[in-house]
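Throughout this review, each integer encodes one residue's backbone shape. One record appears below.

===
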Amino acid sequence: MDNMILQTHNLCKSFKGQQAVNNVSLSIQKNSVYGLLGPNGAGKSTTLKMLTGMLRPTSGEILYEGHPWSRKNLAQIGALIESPPLYENLTARENLKVRTTLLGLPDSRIDEVLNMVDLTHTEKKRSGQFSMGMKQRLGIAIALLNRPKLLILDEPTNGLDPIGIQEQRELIRSFPKQGITVILSSHILSEVEQIVDHVGIIAGGVLAYQEAVTPGQNLESLFMQIAREYRKGGE
């Protein structure tokens, strides 16, 4: 489908015989925010790591813009998985300079991404002295350096205070208008309701639900219903 930037077909990942991700088939529309929900240990991070090449699928297929995924597609994918990869003794600008040098990108890109994540005011402050929210935003800035079409964020609001969560929400919602599709994982349902266009719910490694979010929809109620059904099915 032309409007899909990424799809997976029956994606599986096993660790020592244990199935962490079981036949997951995602459909991610271009220029949207897709929320991948599930309790801790459900398989969210494992799925995202396969999409970014950090883990190799045991079986199944990943399609990027209609073609089988290959490592060259990483040039169009940005990701923040787990903790932001920061040199804490360096400033925000110096952290970004390290990456532009490695990627062969112009220094002008540093100011562009600092502006996008509202970190232009940090100047000589070392990133180790940043708040959690500022560290997360710098991690996103690093992920944006290569002008990705797809941005993958794993629990981007973890550890943030209410102000940091609101700032992160506004930042993420701004990306589709800039031609950037976002996949984010989270277990904070109330927050996801305000950000995403589509939602997928993983329970026990299985994609139990995948639909567009409708106005007034209660994700928490839906999530609890699916979690209970899965738990009953596993008994």
User: Anything to note?
Assistant: Residues 4-233 form a domain with the Rossmann fold fold (CATH 3.40.50.300). The mean pLDDT is 90. The longest strand covers residues 4-15.
